[in-house]
Amino acid sequence: MKHKNLKYPTLIAVLYFGMNAYGQTTPQDTIPKENKIEEVVMIGYGTAKKRDLTGSIAKVDGAEVADKPASNPVNSLQGKVAGLSVVNSGQPGSQADVRIRGTVTINGVNPVYIVDGVFANNIDFLNPADIESMEILKDPSSLAIFGSRGANGAIIVTTKRGKAGRTSVSLSSSIGIKSLDNRPNITNAAGFKTLFNEDLANQGLPAYNQFNIFNADTNWIDAIRQKGGAIQQHNVTIANGSDKNRMSFSFGYQKEDGSIKYEEYERLTMKFNDDLKITKGLRAGFGFTGSYAKLPQLRSFSSALNATPIVSPVNNNPGEFFGLYNSLPQQIGAAQIGNPLALVEGHRYTQLNKDFQFNPNAYLEFDFAKHFTFRSNYFLTYRNGTGRGYEPIFDIYIPESNTVSPYSGRLLSTVNQFENRDLSFQQNQLLTYKNKFGNHDLTLMAGFETINREYSSMSGNAKSSLSNPLGQMPNNPRFWYLNSDYVDPVTRAVNTSQYRQKQVSYFGRMLYSYNNKYMLNASLRNDGSSMLAPGNRFSWFWSVGGAWEVSKENFMKDNGVVDYLKIKGSYGDLGNQFTPYSYFGYPVYVEGGTGVFNGNLYPAFVKQYEEAEDLTWEHLKSYEFGFESTFLKKRLSLEATYYNKRTENLLNYVIGNPNFFMNSGSIEAKGFEFTAGWKDNIGENFSYFFNGNLTTTKTKVLNTLEDGYQTFYGPAIYKAGLPVGAFYGYEVEGIYQSYADILGSPASTIGDVGPGDFKYRDLNGDGKITPDDRTMIGNPTPDFTYGFSVGADYKGFFLNADFYGVYGNEVFRDWGNGSSFAPFNYREERLDRWTGPGTSNWEPRSFSGTAYNRENSTYMIEDGSFFRIRNVQVGYNFDRELVSRYKLQGLKLYFNVQNLKTWDNVNGFTPEFGGSATQFGVNTSGYPNPRIVSFGINATF
């Protein structure tokens, strides 16, 4: 599949220049005055100087995410770090699809998050303004300490704590407006009429005769989208500190409108930390993070894309039914698609979901015997989600018959209610030995950790009753409960689920350097889990890495060009515990059939799957090697790394009689990471920087359950020799132009064909088109991704811009393909369909009734390459002496534009699509990543 050129391909050329050597970006309002070789980074259960490490850790300063209009901090990392892929969804409160160095398992993709020492699956509860730094751990040397959680990488989040000094109060506030950048191209009323009547004619049916009734030209996207959606963020932080006690408190509020009407997200966050120095060698601390969110009632644009544009949203004809929502034409989609505006307006604010999270933590730390430190940490995570909702009943107008009918055929109002609770307790005990003797610098750490998690959920639904003397349940939230007087008890149904997970771990790490030139890092961890079968619950994980700081050798001194050069490499065995179940040794029973006893029918129960006594976690064998360097008095920085990750003993769920789990198969991901950067000053008042990154990734399924085994995940196939998530189907080599063309081509065995239908390629050369002619038609993993930033500062005025792009991936279009017999609206490209010999060799004839043209093929493949102006910010930092007159320590005003412009070749709201480990990059038209124009102010007192 050849890629179309981007509209502005010259922009790609700059990706070879200006990237920071450590994957670290520059704060938006400052230009670094010195290279951060001596920076301290989080490494899991501790900290270390970056130059003493042998692995790849990228550090992003909290200032990079604090003033961006995003509820989840990880959303702002897109394009910032080599090897880190972030696919955002524009829906408020959504979680991004995050992958570090490709896809390496079939069960999960996201990295593990560690927030101030506690493991988390998501960081949507964090206020971006509370973040001190985010470290992205990518290599085995830094990840093996996390054992069975380390295979997909890790993101360590450190939040702000109080510092010694005067009391300070920081305020930040921003307000922004949303708008759409891209949108799918679909036909208007004129185009729809042409294609629909042609559809009918190609089926031998008469033309549609009711366009006199349905004569509107409605853009359903505009009808339901939120115009001028707003986003606002407000934060206050109070910090006070002395040599004995350091305290900080913060409070944040965010409110965001979605791209569809009545999608509203609202969140409150609170954070407190208190660090106490009891004696010279004894320290203690306590803190908590909390969040409370009102979650949006999420909708999609799917019905707006499919609904015919010839219908007016509301009946405007005078009479008894004036003002009711119109039904779609009975012959054109009414049975499959409801009026999109009726769905949004009629169901507004009828689902009330809330999320609450509370994370207290405490620690005690003391020094002894000169070189030893012992730290005891305790973490509690409590998350509670609740919701209740209502399905209303209301009438819609049927224009053909001048009657009304219940919307969606619903005669009874319904109510739903749910609650889930997730409670985790984590503790670890850490003993650290640190000593420097002669040319030797040694740090040893040993730890013990336990994690206990309990999860429970309840959900239920019920209907109203026509015989209830009170009538139907009203559209009033006070009645939306399962025990409401309006509920018919006979229809009440409740489901529950629950599980417990326990993990115990022993681990250790060594950081050693000789003469500050030769470094050796090693980690070892043993994880035991209740999820595995008894007798096989423990697994070992380990890594070793080495580095050589060449620039400290005598032959490199005073060369005038190379300031710093370190060669590094590491190898390790990491783990992966992603799994859909919690008890491999104790499967639950599910209904598997029925039996008759004494004339009565009873359900029969079977095991959900067979026990697997030898099951273990997946193991990822990974290695990397590369270098870090700076040149020309630290103005130029360069880094390059090659990585190779191979996951073995994949955790497979095998469908059989009975179903069972087993370890089998392997996946490989490999590639290169390049980063470079330049920073300099011109005179005393002007400074500038240019930095970015480039990453290549190739994935491959090395082997599966057995030779020849393959399985499908939608349009994707899992098969040895192919990339992970590869799209599978037929190659289209043109359109049959005539019956003579059909007779002169390989015969089709997969469906009847006629002129104007696809001509599939006979790949195996057997003279006919069969399922054996299917092949890989696309790869959702890009050949490379890149991001770069430019910025300048002049006397307090600053300008920064971030850019991001991907190249070489394919997207599978899963909408507008005529994939249903229902008459949906059409993509605009369908106007270029085949209407006779020579009219088109790509767009087939207009006929929705043939399944032949709906086979997965290269017709559905789109070029996924795109380039985006990710963020632009311009502002002014007021002179400190000037603002000090008004009792201020600092004042910053800025204007920010996020997602300013995206150039792509995908017909949809966005060119990027996440998904599961085995199916991603599928274009369902998506949800907009909106352009957000915002203004903000930061003040410190």
Automatic annotation (TrEMBL):
Residues 49-154 form the TonB-dependent receptor plug domain. Signal peptide: none annotated. It holds the Pfam family Plug. Its main location: membrane. Keywords: Cell outer membrane, Membrane, Receptor, Transmembrane, Transmembrane beta strand, Transport. It comes from the Bacteria. Coiled coil: none annotated. It is found in: Cell outer membrane. It is a multi-pass membrane protein. PROSITE patterns: TONB_DEPENDENT_REC_3. The keyword Transport applies. Gene3D superfamilies: TonB-dependent receptor, beta-barrel domain, TonB-dependent receptor, plug domain. Belongs to the TonB-dependent receptor family. This is TonB-dependent receptor. It comes from Chryseobacterium caseinilyticum. The lineage of its organism: Bacteria, Pseudomonadati, Bacteroidota, Flavobacteriia, Flavobacteriales.
